[in-house]
Amino acid sequence: MSQWKCSNCGYQMEAETPPEECPSCKKTCEFLDNTCYTPDCEGAGKDDRIR
Question: What is the mean pLDDT of each run of 10 residues along the chain (51 residues)?
Answer without folding.
Answer: 91 93 95 78 69 68
